[in-house]
């Protein structure tokens, strides 16, 4: 499997089927919502932009028929804005960098075909991550920083679309 934290584009091309879908991309940038290695690579780049040293430590792997289930611990430091997008691709929320570390459990499900990932979905501890990073409960100053981060992300998103 390609590593969202350290794999390069060629790794994604070698492990992701051209028609693969990431069922977890609903709040990611539009480029992540497509199919195939390019969309999965876009997800990795999006994740790395907020958590440059993101890491997934594999705790358990279970395989059954065409399914591979990985229980992992995702960890990293929040160094860049973590931006969430709406269905229309518009910036919905941005969490300003806190420079705090986090470690949370996740379970990733992969459907495989011909040795390649064709589908991915996950169960994550997003609330645990939010608490560790200080997103909840937010301080008044952090809300201001998030509003600024959202405005910057929205302006950057508009500029990219206009190119």
From TrEMBL:
Pfam family, one: SnoaL
GO biological process, one term: polyketide metabolic process
Signal sequence segment: none
Xref: InterPro entries: Cyclase_SnoaL-like, NTF2-like_dom_sf
SUPFAM superfamilies documented for this protein: NTF2-like (SSF54427)
Record PANTHER family: ESTER CYCLASE (PTHR38436:SF1), POLYKETIDE CYCLASE SNOAL-LIKE DOMAIN (PTHR38436)
Identification of the protein by name: SnoaL-like polyketide cyclase
Biased composition, class Basic and acidic residues, residue ranges: 1-26
Domain of life: Bacteria
Spans annotated as Disordered: 1-33
